[in-house]
Design brief:
globular; 2 domains; Rossmann fold; binds calcium ion; 11 helices; single chain; DNA polymerase, domain 1; 225 residues
Length: 225
């Protein structure tokens, strides 16, 4: 990592808050595909692009949104359970998500410079949260993860990032967020934090820009070069 823009951005910062899927892991393709197939199983079309646009919602919120768009009604509890079960079954068939090497490279720099590493994710599945501690061993610790279980409101609400600020004790001005999804960017910006958008998915850059990030990079290589 040469003297890149990220090092300028980090001057005066005391923590980086990382989103998980699509930022730490190249996992969004599998999630998008599993959601698409789960809905297809129930005769409902949920295109991959719409999954990416709604990334960060809880499962319940996602399923309700699709029902509102397709059936003009909320999903029943039973429909939510069945579709979510199907999605979690399907995701088991995909290879384990691989960490982005760029994330590890940046964490090495952060560790050296004494900048704290936090994770703010809507995920609630133990499987993924445990993998996080394994794959980023030495960088991420359990008490520095804010998961879907720690909040009442998911992204795009600011609560996840406000909770991370409160728990870490840092001011918004001392932190940088790295997000890949429109709702995640909105959540971080609503919490008043400098936000880097990393477009690791299939959405057009303009869709991410509409959410108002401070900077946008095409991918990890672009950010840490
Ligand atoms: Ca994400």
């Amino acid at each position: 990592m040469k003297n890149s823009r990220i090092q300028d951005i980090l001057i005066g910062r005391r923590a980086v808050f990382f989103d998980m899927d699509g930022v730490l892991y190249d996992s969004m393709g599998a999630h998008a595909d599993a959601w698409n197939k789960a809905f297809f199983h129930f005769g409902i079309d949920f295109p991959h692009e719409l999954v990416y646009r709604n990334e960060g919602r809880t499962a319940q919120s996602t399923i309700n949104l699709v029902f509102m768009q397709n059936e003009e009604r909320q999903a029943t509890e039973s429909e939510i359970q069945q579709i979510y079960l199907k999605k979690t079954e399907l995701i088991e068939n995909y290879p384990e998500a691989i960490p982005f090497n760029g994330a590890l490279v940046l964490m090495e720099v952060l560790k050296k410079e004494g900048i704290e590493i936090w994770v703010v994710t809507g995920s609630m599945q133990d499987k993924f949260l445990d993998a996080l501690l394994n794959d980023f061993n030495g960088f991420i610790s359990k008490e520095k993860i804010i998961s879907g279980r720690d909040v009442t409101h998911c992204k795009p609400h600011p609560e996840p990032y406000l909770t991370a600020l409160e728990k870490s004790g840092f001011k918004a001005s001392e932190v940088v967020v790295i997000e890949n999804a429109p709702l995640g960017i909105q959540s971080a910006k609503a919490a008043g934090i400098f936000t880097i958008a990393l477009n690791t998915g299939i959405l057009n850059n303009n869709i991410l820009r509409e959410s108002g990030p401070d900077l946008l990079f095409q991918d990890w290589n672009d950010l840490i070069k």
